[in-house]
Write a structure and sequence with these properties.
single chain; alpha/beta; Metallo-beta-lactamase, Chain A; seven-stranded mixed β-sheet; NDM-1-like
Length: 237
């Protein structure tokens, strides 16, 4: 595991040279928020990193319910029973293993490593909607990779933790646009047309930092985000 700090954000990057999977600590004055929980065997490193930072972990926020983002959730909740767990109201269904679609949603099938019914024992404490605040973070609805994917912007710095709305491993791209060197986020994307709209929404936030589930963080990513959006637009048009 490699830890990289940018401002209030600590990236925990697991298997960076093979199959990079990241989760993030967001540092508040007296506590830590964890965004995503990486793979099932990552919980010890997550706990150790929190101890090194020296602040209690009080909240776990999930960008979406794929297995490489919720893998250590149950273990962390078992070890820290008072921690509050947050996920979007829509992806809470995926967390329960419910792959059904709403009437107004595109009927492309939900893809990726969604847990089986009953596999995840942790029940979220808060079901998030657009604009909700979690410490210094504001929730932004960015569906596409999954129907209920969310991104989180740190209102102190405008850094955005975007889950799999983008990837930077193998080349920067919007969810659903296949990068040959690392195609897995695209393979697991529910709907790339919806993902494109969410990518534009993220771009319009003018983020100072883009932090994603797979790949390095990018400072001042505006022009790179615009290029990634343009590339996906060409595949759709």
């Amino acid at each position: 595991m490699k830890v990289v700090k940018e401002g209030f954000i600590h990236q925990l990057n697991f298997y960076p040279t093979l199959f990079p999977v990241s989760c993030y600590f967001v540092e508040e004055e007296n506590e830590l928020t964890l965004v995503d929980t990486a793979l099932p065997n990552c919980y010890k490193s997550i706990i150790d990193t929190a101890q090194k930072i020296g602040k209690p972990l009080t909240r776990i926020v999930l960008t979406h319910a794929h297995g490489d983002h919720i893998g250590s959730l149950d273990k962390l909740k078992e070890m820290l029973p008072d921690v509050m767990v947050y996920i979007s109201k829509r992806d809470e269904r995926l967390l329960r293993g419910d792959r059904s679609l709403d009437e107004n949603e595109n009927k492309t099938p939900i893809k990726g490593g969604v847990p089986k019914p009953g596999e995840i024992k942790t029940q979220p404490d808060v079901l998030l909607q657009e604009g909700d605040r979690i410490g210094s973070l504001k929730a932004i609805s960015t569906p596409g990779h999954t129907p209920g994917s969310m991104s989180f912007i740190d209102e102190r710095t405008k850094a955005i933790i975007a889950g799999d709305a983008f990837q930077t491993r193998g080349g920067v791209s919007v969810s659903g646009h296949t990068q040959v060197l690392f195609p897995f986020p695209a393979i697991a994307t529910w709907n790339k047309e919806v993902a494109l709209k969410s990518a534009i929404k993220i771009k319009n936030q003018n983020p100072s930092l883009l932090a994603v589930g797979h790949g390095k963080m990018l400072k001042q990513p505006g022009s790179i985000i615009e290029l990634a959006i343009s590339k996906l637009e060409k595949t759709i048009s």
